[in-house]
């Protein structure tokens, strides 16, 4: 199906109204107003649409940012309507965004994502080679959309360097360096007692399908959020960053690899 999909920059108000419909279909919330996205677009922003024929089935929305020292591109939202997910379109959109942003002179793209969403983590860290640079506990506060409702909105902030390619480290899982383990009943348990900042790398497991877990057992999902949140905080505080995700879709668990330079 992806062979029939075209990806292009959005430039008109009509296209942004189409984007609103996709946004509402993905998150079931009121979409961003067109006057806002149109203004962002005309002030350094990059907005991409994915089309199946004339029908928009996905979008990627980013706007210009500045940290007081350098400009960067803030990639805020990406989504696809049902029937077009898990087909590699996210990677294609991000690579298109990479090329356009670099040609415009941006040195960096940054965005946030839920660290317990394994598909997003695998795309961001393993496929794109970006870095989970910062941990943001409950970053957005309480959210009511169907993907985030009921949980703290913890996020990793991704940094994607456009000036040089950062290779994804070649690592294999070492169970002696797991900072979270699973109890006999399948609950996550902190293993921070073994944490040693002299160790160059550590592994942290996460659920393979966090959304399914939330639907089946919200109590367990909250447990994962709390236990991994404490471990993530300890790692980032000690100067580690998230650099890869080891993922096997036939297993119930994926594994972050954290290292520091």
UniProtKB/TrEMBL annotation:
Q: Mind telling me which InterPro entries this protein's record contains?
A: Acyl_CoA_acyltransferase, GNAT_dom, GNAT_N_AcTrfase_prd
Segments forming domain N-acetyltransferase: 5-148
Keywords of the record, alphabetical order, are: Transferase
Q: Does the keyword Transferase apply?
A: yes
The domain of life is: Bacteria
The molecular function terms in GO held by this entry are: acyltransferase activity, transferring groups other than amino-acyl groups
A Pfam family reported for this protein in Swiss-Prot or TrEMBL = Acetyltransf_1
Any idea what this protein is called? GNAT family N-acetyltransferase
Q: Which source organism?
A: Lentibacillus cibarius
């Amino acid at each position: 199906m992806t062979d029939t999909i075209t990806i292009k920059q959005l430039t008109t108000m009509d296209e942004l109204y189409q984007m609103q419909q996709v946004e509402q279909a993905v998150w079931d919330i009121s979409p961003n107003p067109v006057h806002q996205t149109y203004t962002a677009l005309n002030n350094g922003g990059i907005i991409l649409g994915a089309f199946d024929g004339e029908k928009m089935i996905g979008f990627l929305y980013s706007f210009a940012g500045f940290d007081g020292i350098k400009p960067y591109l803030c990639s805020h939202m990406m989504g696809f309507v049902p029937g077009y997910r898990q087909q590699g379109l996210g990677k294609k959109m991000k690579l298109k965004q990479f090329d356009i942003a670099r040609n415009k002179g941006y040195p960096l793209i940054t965005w946030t994502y839920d660290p317990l969403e394994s598909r997003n983590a695998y795309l961001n860290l393993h496929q794109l080679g970006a870095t989970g640079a910062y941990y943001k506990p409950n970053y957005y506060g309480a959210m009511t959309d169907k993907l985030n409702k009921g949980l703290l909105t913890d996020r990793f902030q991704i940094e994607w360097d456009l000036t040089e390619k950062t290779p994804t480290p070649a690592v294999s899982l070492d169970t002696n360096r797991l900072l979270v383990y699973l109890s006999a009943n399948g609950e996550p348990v902190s293993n921070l007692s073994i944490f040693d900042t002299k160790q160059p790398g550590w592994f942290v497991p996460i659920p393979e399908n966090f959304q399914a877990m939330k639907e089946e057992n919200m109590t367990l999902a909250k447990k994962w959020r709390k236990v991994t949140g404490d471990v993530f905080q300890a790692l980032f505080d000690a100067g580690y960053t998230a650099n890869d995700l080891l993922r096997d879709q036939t297993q119930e668990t994926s594994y972050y690899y954290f290292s520091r330079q």
